[in-house]
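Amino acids appear as letters; backbone shape is given numerically. Here is one record.
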Amino acid sequence: MGASSTTTTSQWSSKLYLDEGSIVGSTAADGGRLFITTKIKGGSTNILVFDAETGKQLGKLQLEPKK
């Protein structure tokens, strides 16, 4: 008799508010994480990291131009 398994996929929905003038530059997924890159007026870039299973934001990397 063979073993059986059940896979449960949870669905989630999230709303991300960007600063005025910001645009989404790119998105990527890897290792259970979602990465969203946003470009901000003035040259700054943010990389937002989310858990792909829950949609919870895990972190934010802010890249600023050197002045």
